[in-house]
Amino acid sequence: MPRNLARLRHGARRIGGAIGTRGRLRQDALAAPLLGRRRSSRGYASDAGAGVTFQTNPDNREFTRTMEFLNYDDVPLFRVMDEDGVVAEGLEPGVGKEEAIKMHETMVRTAVMDHILHEAQRQGRLSFYMTASGEEATHAGSASALEPQDVVFAQYREQGVLMYRGFTFQQFCNQCCGNAADPAKGRQMPVHYGSTELNYHTISSPLATQLPHAVGAAYALKLERQMMGGEDTIALCFFGDGAASEGDFHAALNFAATTQSPVVFFCRNNGYAISTPIEEQMASDGIVARGPAYGVPAVRVDGNDVWAVRAAVAEARRMALEESTPVLVEAITYRMGHHSTSDDSQRYRPVRSPRLRAPPGLALLLWQLVLTARACPFAVFRTASWISGRSRTTRSCGCGTT
Ligand SMILES: Cc1ncc(C[n+]2csc(CCOP(=O)(O)OP(=O)(O)O)c2C)c(N)n1
Ligand SMILES: [Mg+2]
Predict the structure, then answer these.
(1) Considering the entire predicted model, what is its pTM?
(2) How far is the CA of 240 from the centre of ligand 1 (A)?
(3) What's the chain's average pLDDT?
(4) What is the widest separation between alpha-carbon atoms in the chain?
(5) Counting atoms of ligand 1 from 1, which one is nearest the CA of 274?
(6) Residue 192 bears catalytic tag
(7) Domain assignment of residue 101, given as a range
């Protein structure tokens, strides 16, 4: 028998033994015969397999006589609030009034900004825009669980996170218009925001590239902290269900797990990757089950429950830092709007879809305008300045309207 073939056969026996243990596939069992080396207690010895012990159970795991095929189906959603907004006992968020108002403002402002900029694109003032209607709670909930030093790697539909961190309506407009005040000076497409001051890495168009970038950053942050001390910092990486179908997703999770990097992967599972519904993308029960397969703890939350999102990300952040592990959070949500202004979602889903309703923030704004504008035309301007963040109060102009 040719020497190489004999070596491969010998390798195959050893590989089969490693798999048959039902334990983890041992890398050394795979690599050693192919390299013509064996693993010794001091590393690899170079004697082409002579004297190798055939280990049936290298990890000393238990054998079983029950044949069990693993499956992850119907993973439940963690939620804190019910449909009526009632918080479950024992799960109170423990958030102060100021913080709660900031979260609420972020959700309303995001919805209103989306409406204005979407309409501006329709009027030909912008070349492109993407709304986040229906996903506002994932923004406010996750952003509020972070510390300012945490670095964010977003996809493109997370404008509320950046808004929560302090990006102004003016800055959003500068970027979307590509004017002189835009840091990229118009060299990026609209919605490709970024801010060094706010630790928000610039959005990158090729899908899922932010995942390995986030892991690299998290690994560097961990090494920096180990070597030089400093603040506890994690990387939070947002991505969509469609991005999870890219190879970068798998590489990133494996890389993060093996390097034990403090990164929180936050999947916005909004049901669609442009026109492809989730059930045509994957046969698995969403994204959450993929975490444990890579050694990454994972949780699924109700993405419409801002407190559940906040609690999950806060716990994931704690685990990332204290247990030195990446964590996967899958938020189940819904893309209420079109994918982008280049898309017409009515061509691939029912017209009477709930996502075609006006965003809640817009309804609130209109209601406020109706109530106040009747009494005072200046109230419209006051409301507009409240939305844009220029004014914290709706100051009275003397007409009696508050
Ligand atoms: C590498 C790559 N492939 C394809 C695209 C085109 N593309 C842009 S967004 C998108 C769908 C992404 O869906 P998802 O990750 O679920 O995010 P969502 O738009 O739903 O927020 C696709 C396929 C791209 N930008 N990059
Ligand atoms: Mg999606």
Answers:
(1) 0.78
(2) 8
(3) 81
(4) 100
(5) 11
(6) no
(7) 97-356
